[in-house]
Amino acid sequence: MRVIVLGGGISGLCAGYEVLRQVPDASVVVLEAGDRVGGAIATEHTEDGFLIERGPDAMLTQPDHALKLAQELGLEPRIVRTSSAVSGAFILRSKRLHPVPDGFALVAPGNLKAFLTTPLVSARGKARALLEPLLAPLQPAGELSLQTLVQGRLGQEVLDYLAEPLAGGIYGADPRLLSMHAALPKYAALAQRGQSLIGGVRRLQRGAGARAAGARYGLFISFQGGCGELISALAGALGPERIQLGQKVESLTRFGRGWQVNVTSRGEQGGERTRSLRADAVVCALPAARAAGVLRDATPELACELGAIPFGSSAVVSFAFEREQIAHPLDAYGFVVPKREGLSLRAATFSSVKWPGRAPVGTVLLRAFVGGSGGEGQAARPEAELVATLLAELRLILGIRGEPRFHRVDRYLSAMPRYYLGHEALVARIDEAARHQTHLALAGNSYRGVGIPEAIRSGRAAATTLVSALS
Ligand SMILES: Cc1cc2nc3c(=O)[nH]c(=O)nc-3n(C[C@H](O)[C@H](O)[C@H](O)COP(=O)(O)OP(=O)(O)OC[C@H]3O[C@@H](n4cnc5c(N)ncnc54)[C@H](O)[C@@H]3O)c2cc1C
């Protein structure tokens, strides 16, 4: 059994790992265009003792795909939880940071007392929101967007100052277009059943509270050496002989019931050559837009559907400061910025406060994010301009004096899948078109969840599908 995996991000590595776990004598090759595996997951250890997450910095423990994989790979002793010295996050309103009201669950309040006392929403906005349980059910003509749901049920202010910055921070999407069904189905289901969002969130939280009481870890985990530890462990389990770097997959062609993979390989001297590899089965673990290009000749119909998933851009700028340069107490994990505030900055993480051991004593590591709805262009700005703008905004918000010790800029251009209205139907059409392609399976975060746990699940599921088809 020869399986080729396209893409060495976490979903591709998981696919290769799972094939080998199920069929130890299978021949597995992971083809990665870049010069390292991990894709968006990249951890840097600086010489002066900072640990910088250049992409993701945390993994959800529910669903538990990341936690289970870490346990399987022997990484459990390396797991770290978010710091218990502080908790929660802030939201910016009128240049001041205010805590996210306790119990606010992305779209609706679960703790009415905390909601009533937050300065993030005016008295009028709160009165409007609290009418929600009395409103007639929403009867949307089609699929629900974040905007239709939150504005319709809880009013404009809750959308602008809570739901948009919180949900937008995760999905980076325009609230008018973000599909509640694809991105946040449990809240869409409440509205569809004609139930109150506030009542539903309170019930969901009571259930989650009961489950959390027995849970060993918090909602988010990482590792002592950052998310990159998971990549190193997966690459180690696969073995270096199964991972080929500098291999850009150009196209697939049918070869019997299997596939021929056409690749441009980067040589050691920097030269390029084209070559073809044959496989019984292929896992395509590329972002959908890239997969569309690779599959265009072999299966135009599938490629066309894949190409219809929109992608957005973001950039992350990490800054290191001396603690005494920052006036703000940094007593939370970070903050998000509502679009209404009109800044370039959309969010910031106080990384060295959120995680233990990320910066030497007496220093602070911050990560600033731009991009997402209305800010896509920010991510491509020239480095000097981007850094100066973010520094100016951070100075105002956090009271920062002087220059950072260093900064790092990482850009993710047209790299973030957007789950817009129609996404679920589009994924159903993709599944249907892919079903007709024998011995081909898709994986990655373009389809059923944008985070690491779903990338892991999808890679392993793709491997399982192919192994059972070939057995
Ligand atoms: C800034 C940022 C912050 C994030 N924060 C979080 C977070 O805190 N928690 C969380 O759960 N998720 C987070 N995510 C999302 C998470 O990183 C992704 O869900 C996950 O890494 C996706 O993995 P993947 O393998 O599907 O794709 P990718 O990581 O994109 O990997 C795809 C791989 O394919 C390779 N490739 C592309 N084209 C070709 C080709 N033609 N031939 C060969 N190889 C090719 C690429 O080089 C890449 O290595 C974040 C993402 C970003 C960008």
Overall description:
With 471 residues, this protein is α+β, with helices and mostly antiparallel strands. It has three domains: 2-39 and 228-309 and 419-470, FAD/NAD(P)-binding domain (3-Layer(bba) Sandwich), CATH 3.50.50.60; 102-212, protoporphyrinogen ix oxidase, domain 3 (Orthogonal Bundle), CATH 1.10.3110; 311-417, Protoporphyrinogen oxidase, mitochondrial, domain 2 (Polyamine Oxidase, Chain A, domain 2), CATH 3.90.660.20. The chain is built from 16 helices and 22 strands. The protein has helices spanning 10-22, 65-72, 112-117, 123-130, 146-154, 156-171, 180-183, 185-192, 197-212, 228-238, 288-295, 300-306, 351-354, 383-398, 423-435, 452-470; strands spanning 2-6, 27-31, 43-45, 51-53, 59-60, 79-81, 90-93, 96-99, 104-105, 108-109, 220-223, 243-244, 247-255, 258-266, 272-279, 281-284, 311-322, 334-336, 347-349, 363-371, 406-417, 440-442. The protein has a seven-stranded mixed sheet. Strands 12-2-1-16-22 form a five-stranded parallel sheet, with helices on one face. It has a three-stranded antiparallel sheet with strand order 5-11-6. Helix 1 runs parallel beside helix 10 and helix 12 packs antiparallel against helix 15 (423-435). It starts with a strand and ends with a helix. The model has no long low-confidence stretch (mean pLDDT 95). Bound molecules: flavin-adenine dinucleotide. The site of flavin-adenine dinucleotide has 36 residues, from helix 1, strand 13, helix 11, strand 17 and strand 21.
